[in-house]
Amino acid sequence: MVELSSLLKFEDVSLSFGGITALKNVSFDVKEKSITSIIGPNGAGKTSVFNCISGIYSPDSGNIFFEDANITNMRPNKIAELGIARTFQNIELFENLSVLENILTGVHRRLDYGILSGLFYSSKAKKGELYARKEAEDIIDFLEIEEYRYSYVMSLPYGIQKRVELGRALALAPKLILLDEPAAGMNNEETEDIARFIIDINEELKISVLLVDHDMNMVTDIAHEITVLNFGEKIADGTPNEVIENSSVIEAYVGSSKK
Ligand SMILES: Nc1ncnc2c1ncn2[C@@H]1O[C@H](COP(=O)(O)OP(=O)(O)O)[C@@H](O)[C@H]1O
Ligand SMILES: [Mg+2]
């Protein structure tokens, strides 16, 4: 049974590729309305955790629960439909579409499987389209990208593209959003901006966040709880303060920076 306070339960999950062990008996929880983070050096298994949760990889063993559902081995679309959205480590957007169009694709995807699908495809399609447009505009305002609304994504600075990707995930109106290294490749100002948006997503939109990063700085500022992976195994978990003082964590980070 899933505890009431846990939105997601990742339970004893193992995953391997041929001889490579990507995850070994990894367990952690994401509590309702929390910002939970997974950190670890490159190759630790962070993206693999996301790919298991979003249904792209099938674990060799273990279970993943979301609310009351066992989502292990469920199809990616079904998992998105239950309320889990994600962004990717490398931006995956439609480069030749505008910011607005990119975010609309997220809204349309939700309308496609949601209760409004009838509205959207029926004679009332126009009403559906107006609704979608309003949803997209709200997200654009929230992320403060109004001035880029009609710009093609590929023409935009990297930090703004990352924000658009966040917008497309938000357009699914998820209960849980998975962010894979949202600050990678960003300068300090862009990183501070994205950290602020992650906090707002959690506090204002009441969406739980699972945040992956290899860099501890932003994560220790904004996460409530952190799980640390190294070579596919959990080596620590706890509050940011507990984790940064943990000797295995320090060792893993010092060790990886020597390579
Ligand atoms: N599709 C795949 N095929 C083969 N090996 C993979 C695949 N995905 C991940 N791995 C391996 O699993 C390990 C963990 O990778 P990953 O989850 O991407 O780590 P991280 O995101 O922490 O950098 C690495 O050794 C990686 O090479
Ligand atoms: Mg990764």
Please name the defining characteristics of this protein.
259 residues, alpha/beta, Rossmann fold, 2 domains, 6-stranded mixed β-sheet, 10 helices, 10 strands, binds magnesium ion
The helix tally amounts to 10
DSSP, total strands: 10
Shape estimate: globular
Biggest sheet, open or closed, and with what strands and sense? Answer: 6 strands, mixed
Unreliable stretches, pLDDT < 50, 5 or more residues?
A: none
CATH fold call of the largest domain? Rossmann fold
The CATH class name of the largest domain reads Alpha Beta
User: Considering DSSP H and I runs of 4 or more, what fraction of the residues is helical?
Assistant: 40-55%
Give a short overview.
This protein is α/β, with parallel strands linked by helices and 259 residues long. The protein has helices at residues 46-53, 76-82, 99-113, 117-121, 125-142, 158-170, 188-203, 216-222, 240-244, 247-258; strands spanning 6-17, 20-31, 35-39, 61-66, 69-70, 84-86, 176-180, 208-213, 225-230, 233-238. The protein has a 6-stranded mixed β-sheet, sandwiched between helices.
